[in-house]
Amino acid sequence: MIKVKNHLGTIGITDKYIKTLVSKTAQSCFGVADINHAGAVQGITDYIKRRRAENFGVTIKHTAGGRPIIGLHISVAYGVNVNAIAGSIIHKVEYVMESEAGIKPEKVNVFIDKMVG
């Protein structure tokens, strides 16, 4: 959980909310075909529950200062500029996190796992 202090008091923001926000933001970007498993645990959980979680494909680690490092696993459409898509996603995720949650991430890592034809 990330705690943000402002003039109104302290606000607690859960990792689940951040993961959901990042996942929905990435899905809305041009060229993103799908969100992939962010490891074996998410893959097994998805298989057992037979449905996808809203925070699918996103990992969060926290720095010593409390700022999040975000990892996002995606599939992209064939024929698009991979570098441009990754840069666009990074920029959009940083913008949405700052505007919606008031948090500036330390780093956003985009992992392109496969290309879909």
Explained architecture:
The protein is of the alpha+beta class. It has a single domain, classed as Alpha-Beta Plaits (2-Layer Sandwich). It is 37% helix and 33% strand. The protein is built from three helices and six strands; from the N terminus they run ββαβαββαβ. It has helices at residues 15-27, 40-49, 82-101; strands spanning 2-6, 9-13, 32-35, 58-62, 68-77, 107-116. Strands 3, 4, 5 and 6 form a four-stranded mixed sheet that branches. Strands 1-2 form a two-stranded antiparallel ribbon. β1 and β2 (9-13) form a beta hairpin. α1 (15-27) crosses α3. The N and C termini lie far apart (38 Å). The relative contact order is 0.22. The mean pLDDT is 86.
Q: Total helix count?
A: 3
| Structure summary, number of beta strands | 6
Unreliable sequence segments: none
Return the domain count.
1
Distance between the termini: 38 Å
Label this structure with key terms.
single chain, 117 residues, alpha+beta, Alpha-Beta Plaits, 4-stranded mixed β-sheet, two-stranded antiparallel sheet, 3 helices, 6 strands
Secondary-structure map:
Blueprint: E1 2-6, E2 9-13, H1 15-27, E3 32-35, H2 40-49, E4 58-62, E5 68-77, H3 82-101, E6 107-116
Parallel strand pairs: 5-6
Antiparallel strand pairs: 1-2, 3-5, 4-5
